[in-house]
Amino acid sequence: MDNFCDALKKLKLTAADSGGDSLEGCLDCLLKALAHNNAEASEKIQESGILQQFPGLLSLQSSCTPKVANIIAEVAKNGEVSTRAFSAATSSVLLPPLS
């Protein structure tokens, strides 16, 4: 779980400043944590505030876009977190590619 917390910190610091390609390792760590314990990882991701930066990462259409979308989907599986965590901005970025 230490790697997970480190990945969250790194994502929070670098997501706004860099392209998604440089964040791939952090995103992989989040996906592993979600696969291991979705409820706990979802809660920590939501508390970190990183979800608010995901719409910007999704709009970059980088090689990390599928991983970001997968993290959002995994967090959304946890209904308690998903009702609080997702903004209209996230929805507006996700819906056009699905249409």
Structure notes:
- This protein is 74% helix and 0% strand.
- It is mainly α.
- The radius of gyration is 12 Å and the shape is globular.
- The N and C termini lie far apart (36 Å).
Per-chain topology:
Elements: H1 2-14, H2 24-36, H3 38-48, H4 54-59, H5 65-76, H6 79-85, H7 88-98
- Could you tell me the strand content as a percent range? under 5%
Estimated helix fraction: over 70%
Compressed to H and E, one letter per element, the order equals: HHHHHHH
**How would the global form be characterised?**
globular
Number of helices: 7
**Number of β-strand runs:** 0
Uncertain regions spanning at least 5 consecutive residues: none
pLDDT averaged over residues: 74
The largest sheet is: none
Which structural class fits the helix and strand makeup? mainly alpha
Spatial gap, N to C terminus: 36 Å
Radius of gyration: 12 Å
Keywords:
99 residues, mainly alpha, 74% helix, globular
Quickly describe the structure.
The protein has 99 residues and is an all-alpha fold.
